[in-house]
Design goal:
Pfam families: RT_RNaseH_2, rve. This is Gag-Pol polyprotein. Keywords: Endonuclease, Hydrolase, Nuclease, Nucleotidyltransferase, RNA-directed DNA polymerase, Transferase. It is built from eleven helices and ten strands. It has about 290 residues and is an alpha+beta fold. The protein folds into two domains: about 40-110, Ubiquitin-like (UB roll), CATH 3.10.20; about 125-275, Nucleotidyltransferase, domain 5, CATH 3.30.420. It is elongated, with a radius of gyration of 30 Å.
Length: about 290
């Protein structure tokens, strides 16, 4: 910045070029700085990040670094000249501006992206859907979806209490698919309860809490709820507890475009046999003729 400040007055279009000793020295220093500039490294998605910021009397700057082989390597730089009013700010305010502006600049890199699951049933998303019309005494359903295979389980419940939540997880998911490594939930009282946290400790499970009033954070379950509820409404059956098993069969048999497979294939190793397959197999049987 000091180098550019010395050169800038000689670039004004309305004034003649006056190359002073100070400007010439600044130009040579800038040329040298470009030749010796620190090379940026390619970002590593799993590497820890560190943001270093600083502020001077007339500018702010920062460096985003990643830890690779026990060495901090720069992957991005940021700098901004202060306005005339900002140069009168206190050191504390200028440093705070540097932190705020740098985080805003590199927010997409600091927040990162959702890590992709690399094993079946290691990471599950869960939530409740309701209040539903009473059906066999049930008014809610707990939904659990495996992030890797997208296999869904729907468990009818009479309430959304912490005890009910824990029982549904223990009785209907864990005996079939084992203990998950990670569970993503919203900030419902049943998931924030001491009982559910204690269950996670026993299972050795890490819980991820989504952002308040931001259903997109648990979008896998939210989209499934819309699909499930709209499919149940289509059926004329008054009891949704008698309808959702067939709906689940269809959902588990539909190809997911993002994984180019059905969740049944990733879970069972093959597609599920549907009623239409039975009808087709019967129609293919040849009718014996008299000879």
């Amino acid at each position: 910045m000091l180098i550019k400040k010395a050169i800038r007055p000689t670039k004004k279009s309305e004034s003649s070029l006056q190359c002073s000793e100070e400007a010439e020295k600044a130009f040579l220093d800038a040329e040298k700085a470009l030749a010796e500039a620190t090379l940026l490294k390619h970002p590593i998605s799993v590497a820890p990040l560190s943001l270093w910021t600083d502020a001077s009397l007339f500018a702010i700057g920062s460096s985003l670094n990643q830890l690779s082989n026990e060495i901090w390597e720069p992957i991005a730089f940021f700098s901004m000249k202060l306005s005339k009013s900002q140069t009168n700010w206190s050191t504390y305010d200028r440093e705070l501006l540097a932190i705020y502006s740098s985080i805003k600049k590199f927010r997409h890199m600091l927040e990162g992206t959702f890590s992709l699951p690399d094993a079946r049933f290691s990471h599950i998303n869960t939530d409740f859907s309701g209040l539903l019309p009473p059906s066999d005494g049930y008014t809610y359903c707990m939904t659990i979806i495996d992030r890797f295979t997208r296999w869904p389980e729907v468990i009818p419940t009479t309430n959304i209490a912490a005890e009910t939540t824990c029982k549904a997880l223990i009785h209907d998911w864990i005996p079939r698919f084992g203990c998950p490594v990670t569970i993503t939930t919203d900030q419902g009282r049943n998931f924030d309860s001491h009982l559910f946290r204690h269950l996670n400790d026993i299972l050795g499970t890490n819980r991820i809490r989504t952002t308040s009033y931001h259903p997109q954070s648990n979008g896998l379950v939210e989209r499934f709820h819309r699909h499930l509820e709209s499919s149940i409404i289509v059926h004329s059956q008054p009891k949704w507890t008698e309808t959702f098993p067939i709906v689940l069969l269809v959902i588990r048999s539909v190809i997911k475009p993002d994984i180019n497979a059905t969740c049944a294939e990733l879970t069972c190793g093959t597609t599920l046999r549907l009623p239409s397959d039975i009808l087709n197999s019967k129609s293919d049987l040849s009718t014996p003729t008299d000879t």
